[in-house]
Amino acid sequence: MAEQSWDLPDVRRLLLPWLLRWDVHTGVWLKSPFPHGAPVVELVGDRATGKSALLHWAREQHHTRLPTVHVDLEASRWFTSPDERARAALDTPHSSPVTHLLFRIEYGLTDSRVTQGRKHTLTFSRLPLMLGLLRALTTEDAGEDRPPDQLSEAAAALEGVMRAADAAGPEDPERARSVVAAWAEVAVAVLTGALAPPGFAQVIAAARETLTYWSARGKPDPALDWWAGRLPGVDSPTRKLLGLVDDFRSREPGGRGRVEEHLMAALLADIAANYGWVDRIRCHPPLLLLDNLDEALRERWLDPYVRQYAALGADTRTRRVMRPVTLVTSRGDGAREGIVPAACPRDSLGETETGQWTRPDRVPPRQWLTRLGIPAATWDDAKEMLREAGHGATTERLTRMTRLGAGRTGPMLLLARAGAGEEALAHRSGPGAPSVAARILELLLPDPAVRSAALPAAPALDWPAACAAGVPLRHQPTNGPTARALMRPYANGTVWPRGRGSALPVVRDPALRAVLLHVLREQGDGTRWRQVHERLERHYAARTGGGEGTGPGEGTGPGSGGGEAEMLRLHHAMALGKWNSEALPALHRRFGERRYARWLLDLQLLAAAPAPYEGYPESWSAEECAYCADDGQAGLHREMASLLLSLWRLAAPPARTPAPGAEELAMYVTEPLQVLGRAAVPAAGMSNPLAEAADTWSGELSQGRQPPFLSVPGGGGDG
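The chain above was modelled as a monomer; its predicted structure follows.
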């Protein structure tokens, strides 16, 4: 997996050594411009662009040399969920996604198996004290008719002792020690195993140690003293802690968030407490790697974490504390304004003329977070991928990789290894192995349920049609993760030409849509392919008012309002092989309406249809349609057939890009458009869109542009 981070060499070779003050390859210590700790670094990029691979590489390189924790936030049910209701259910009276994450970080750093270097293990006291109290003092409401269980009784006894204590400690130290011991024993017995993540027993043990030390009246404990100094008020330390527990239980807005921010400060203080002034000189900082941060966790975890990260050490005289190096990845547009390209990380973090990083108190909190964008892989990157895979970097292969990869490292690497030929999506590494298309789909849509629901949605040109095609109810637009995964803006900035109405593909990303269509085609012997498109065809036929079996001109006369729905139906009729019997006659009829810019849009909508399961037709029937007899110009039908069939083949994502001035472009695109342009009768004072398209489309096609994204003179009006 680490090989997919090949296009982030600056991050691996320059940024990480700079942050850690150490080159893992050479073992050389490096001088850092951040004597008080580097800012938190967030890597922003699309899915399958190498973010996760980079974090896996960082863990593999460093986990034996310094305390390291790596958490995939998307892969665990503890931290987040794409479903809003499931995400809300993660908050319980005794835990939240943030407390789960804090525990996972603490457990990972404590359990880190460092075999080299000077700092082998880290210990924690402040954070486990509160995590233990939150989890084992807060019990679910069992109802008045149920007797309290063993943990409830032990928790109530401990809470009573803590509330009765004064600043010096409990009134009865002997009883307090026995209550603490009984509570800890019951908590471990009841809450470990299936009810708690691994390592929870250590949290309870650390909390027990602190509370036992506290129970010896008059002996201050560093962890408890830290909490007492941090929390306002004149209450005893234990009452302050119980106040935090009450705030966490409450449903007041911001109450739980304030507690979580205190817990983040405790985590950072615990880490810093492991490094004295000698350790800060001789040891490297621990490494926190958090993968796949979503927007919900950004607001709830990252923003307050950065605030506490910036404030760390403000209460010390020297302000020199050990901050963990924190790398976070998130999905987003790495080229968006305000995000620094990851290709030049040292410049983005760089030293300022004022040397502000030597005075962390003068650094604004927002500057403690640096966002680095992972740019899309380029044409030159595709060349390098093909070279490494042992294939020649031809224009056809490069075009295919950029179309189907859409700048994503993972898919482009898979295509390069498959040779990036016309059948690259179908390539398999061996008998029984998944196709390249299936492997790309696993990268882009890792949730199997979303992948399954996305397949019938892929051909649909709007959500009602997708539902008719068989998308399960729970995945429909407003209440499921499929919409969020698929309804994303086009990666290349293009707009579906009929987007002014209801026709806007459910799958907004052209590359993802092409891969989904290929996987749908792979299923069975074509039965699933035909079933989905027949459902879509019937759906749009009903919208024309003609129902099943509507002919190419029925229900679509002037003023009927069914013209757009008819063309959407014919888009799917093309995918069923009905191009000659239905799509072409309809195109001929609409040519007679003299709305030529709109006709070019309709032509592209039909040409953008997926190929039938049996493949593109080799030829077309020369039989005249009903409209040929009406206008007496059968030659137009032949030119339309030649044009539609040629554009249909050129619209396929794996299609070869014709060379500029190629004979096939002149014969099958330019000449038919010229003939149709001469036959057109534009309205008085209007330009001839067909003649203009004859001048421009060949050049656009030779540059790799495909239907339905060819320019339309007049913008699709009635010209």
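The two ends are 53 Å apart (CA to CA).
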